[in-house]
Amino acid sequence: MWKFLPALTLCGLWGCEPPPPPPPPPAARTKSPPPSELPAPPADPADPLFRHVPPNQRVAWQPAFKMAATREETDKKYPLPQNPETIRKVRAARVKFCRDESVGVFEKHGNTAAPWAGKARDAMEAYALSGARMSWPNQGVYYEAFQKALAAVPAACDDPLIRYWLLRHGPGYDSSEATAVAWQGLAENLAKSEYRMIALHAAFNTLSRVLDAAGKAGSKLVPAAVAEAEGRYQRALRVLAANPSPRYWDEVAEVAYLEAGVRSKQGQDGAAAIEAVDARLAAAGAAAWVRHAAKGKSLVVAGWAARGEGTADTVTPEGFRLLGVHMTAARGELDAAWQIDPTRADPARWMLHVARAEGFDRDEMEEWFRRAMEADPDCYMACRLKKSWLTKKWHGTDEDVFSFVDQCFRTGNFYGHLPFVAEFPLMEDLPYKDKEFVQKYSQNPAAWVPLDRVAHAHLAHYPDDRWARTRYAYHALIWKRWRVAEAQFHWLKDKPAPGWFETTADYEQAVQRANRELGGK
């Protein structure tokens, strides 16, 4: 059972209030301001939509479940790094990178005198804030702000980046063959521009969609279209892989790892696909870090694909063998990448997959977790992976998980979504497609409490987060919390965020049901 005590409040993004200084002599003593009047921490330029909440107004969180240790003991033995200076530095660097690759390129090479130039700049600036947010980048207040700014760009705008974004992030985005064909032209225009980083992603996304469309029964895509997409992608990859600047390392490694997955999905042997991608990186002169990181991530995916995510009794002997082979190789690659540059979080984060598969002991797993969070305190996926390692299914206990999700919530890092790890304490996520399980789980009132607290606390800091309000309403319907649902529907009106209600009719029916359950009030 969960219980929350009003006297216990969260530490915010900037940590708990520091201990008070020694009291002054009686004659000089002054009255301390109430918590509601304490000055807010300095604003974070990378997070301008964050709303400071005074300590005495923060959502209380004191679960009554049994934890493995006290909070003080947990924080001391297994720290969750949230250094404020590192947070600001890492976020600022990500925003600068996204800005340099969009509006920075536009200012140097774009049609800055065009009537639409101002609106295009606004969209690019909004992209910089949205793209810098690594956890769930296509949801939330910054992504919505980017979409609004993009929609405001006049139709006459012919900037290749804006035209690509209008398809990639617009309402017509789908996996149809017609869309795949449209991608070809937009990706080609980007390839001819100076938007080189985004051109690489566009070229890969186009190739992925063209291959997918071409593989469907009745496809009218000719081999020449596939060859065109292949050639464009390979050229874009070579351009950035050969660039001596470390600024593109993460981007090239990410796309190369994704390419290996696409090749495998298309029927190529997984190991062969990984080696082929690595050979192309080597031929392009890619940095050693890029090759180690891309190969390590690809091997992790191949290992889990061979094993499957089921319980041990569902895994074949060959599945176990391939898991071991791939994870041993991945461990070497990821360690090599981390040794080259420990300031990048990706190798340490991905090593947590290996830790779960190979059964690292607690201290070794924690060491890699610490490395990931010190490099990027917003690393939501590192927190999810550690939570998975701590479950009884793998290497921990319920008490270990409870201590950790409590720790995640107490960070107050809603920008990085770290508190969301606590929504479903003993699960990675709610298996929404398993209707029977969801119904049974939602009958437990205690299961609603952490979900409610996370949503309530997040919205206190980001009250205009349409995505968060939509998912809050969706969960409230499952738990039959009609007043919560109705309150969110009142705010959302007829514009829910996509992804939760399949159709407009589904959303309207949900609104009507909440109203009906409340007696039409």
UniProtKB/TrEMBL annotation:
Protein name from the UniProt record: DUF4034 domain-containing protein
Recorded superkingdom: Bacteria
Pro residues: bias regions: 18-45
Species annotation: Limnoglobus roseus
Record region (Disordered): 18-53
